[in-house]
Prior knowledge:
This protein is of the alpha+beta class. 38% of the residues lie in helices and 20% in strands. It folds into two domains: 2-131, no CATH class; 204-221 and 256-430, Chitobiase, domain 2 (2-Layer Sandwich). Helix 1 packs parallel to helix 4, helix 3 runs antiparallel to helix 4 (47-61) and helix 10 (258-273) runs parallel beside helix 13. The longest helix is centred in the middle third of the chain and has 33 residues, at 162-194.
Amino acid sequence: xxxxxxxxxxxxxxxxxxxxxxxxxxxxxxxxxxxxxxxxxxxxxxxxxxxxxxxxxxxxxxxxxxxxxxxxxxxxxxxxxxxxxxxxxxxxxxxxxxxxxxxxxxxxxxxxxxxxxxxxxxxxxxxxxxxxxxxxxxxxxxxxxxxxxxxxxxxxxxxxxxxxxxxxxxxxxxxxxxxxxxxxxxxxxxxxxxxxxxxxxxxxxxxxxxxxxxxxxxxxxxxxxxxxxxxxxxxxxxxxxxxxxxxxxxxxxxxxxxxxxxxxxxxxxxxxxxxxxxxxxxxxxxxxxxxxxxxxxxxxxxxxxxxxxxxxxxxxxxxxxxxxxxxxxxxxxxxxxxxxxxxxxxxxxxxxxxxxxxxxxxxxxxxxxxxxxxxxxxxxxxxxxxxxxxxxxxxxxxxxxxxxxxxxxxxxxxxxxxxxxxxxxxxxxxx
Length: 431
């Protein structure tokens, strides 16, 4: 696998050089620095980040800033169609954040002795090169002394009233400091009354891994329809049927469920309480090269969330369809006394899956909320945002270093008019 990865990285570099890099760029010392950076452990495992970085460095050296815009990077690096909607597709912005982190890590370790530093300022994609400010640690720690001339006159005697002057000046300083402290305290009081403090609650063991400096990806279901809202839309149930003649019409992938919308609102509330951020993305825009380094939150059914279908895990519970296209939850590894299928008994009966499992990379987490219908997805997220429910759940599966242990669970939900009224923990598998 390591050998294959090295071949892939080498192919990316060669493709960039072949397609867009001039001879002038290759012979530039800044290009040599870029090559050392992409060969380091910080970037060598991310082919797309390498392509992104080398592309914008070449734009800088060739003095072509018009080619380093979000649109141009999306087209030339991430193979989006010209004129794509960058407001909906944030691939360039999210990858730029990752690239900035990698550059910072490189110059703090492997590249600490480089003569040049390269940065990508926030809000821009064209890099900036500047000389490294190397500081002599001996000189930096030594007090500064001035040369003394032997013929210099001795200091004059202080005036007779110097002690009184110093005394008056000291009291002025004290008064000024007291005034500043008073004003600062008053300002702090005003700010404190308008800005809520970070709140801790019993939901923290579940959500703590997601309240990090690197915002998690919240990936919501994004089903594909064919047709139009006036003549009628038809759901394409599986990706392999998208080009089938049975599903004619114009593709439309701008929809999601009402439960997913409510779920994202609940997630926004709990993240705001902890002054944390997240990146919201519909499933059809997610790339695993981007997602593998992040904490992930999946919201919605796998049939309408392609990224969740591709999740490289082996879950105990999966959503399936019977011969009448009715959903149920399959228990792949039933334990003593557990049914193999969880099937709703009425339209007001619903099941959903909630899970917290290890991420693709170490120290990462994945949370999954998926119902048989959009109402079940909503109920699953509301369950995870309830301090009482998470406290009971944590009590059953335990926690390590303040984080709930990995698990999968099935929730049984009672509905009324499409609104979740009661949610109970039906079955729990701890990993």
